[in-house]
Amino acid sequence: DTPPSPPSLAPLGRRDTKRLTRGHTEIDARLDLHGMTQAEAHAALRRFVAAAQARGARFVLVITGKGGDGEAGPGREHSRGGHLHHQGRGILRRQVPLWLQLPEFRAYVVGFDAAAGHGGAGALYVRIRRPR
User: Fold this and answer.
1) pLDDT, tens digit (0-9, with 9 covering 90-100), for 47-97
2) pLDDT (mean) for 18-45
3) Is 75 contained in some domain?
4) Which of 73, 87, 108, 111 has its Cα between 20 and 30 A from that of 121?
């Protein structure tokens, strides 16, 4: 027997995103990943979404920080002595959406979107899946 595949992700609807942005829908919990390593942030995110689901949360806010200082934005490299170096800052901003799409998170997460009213590019609204 193969284990059932994890449920697929569904993007947040425009209505949900708008209600969250305007404060009409409550954010049930917040997680700030600022200053964590990728390993720490990944583990914290997993614990956070599992705990949020266990408490019956519907929407949570995950703050990744924008990262970088505008010099080399996400996905860009800067040159130093002829060698390309990846910009280390902003890595969580790029990684967290990828993590949320992994099968290990899909049991907890319905979908997510940039948190326009709560930090924009440096934060995500995450809709938590109801427990089965």
Assistant:
1) 999 999 999 999 999 999 876 544 333 333 333 344 433 445 688 999 999
2) 93
3) no
4) 108
What tokens were used for 116?
């326009």
Any domain includes 109: yes
**Is 107 part of a structural domain of the chain?**
yes
CATH number at residue 110: 3.30.1370.110
Tell me the longest C-alpha to C-alpha distance in the chain.
55
Q: Strands 29-32, 59-63: parallel, antiparallel or unpaired by DSSP?
A: parallel
pLDDT one-digit tens code per residue, 91-125: 899 999 999 999 999 999 999 998 876 666 789 99
Domain span holding position 116: 14-68+85-128
Ranges of beta strands (E only) in the chain are 29-32, 59-63, 77-80, 83-86, 109-115, 120-128
- Evaluate whether residue 28 is within a structural domain: yes
The first and second tokens of residue 34, run together, are 């600022």
Count of CB atoms within 10 A of residue 119's CB? 17
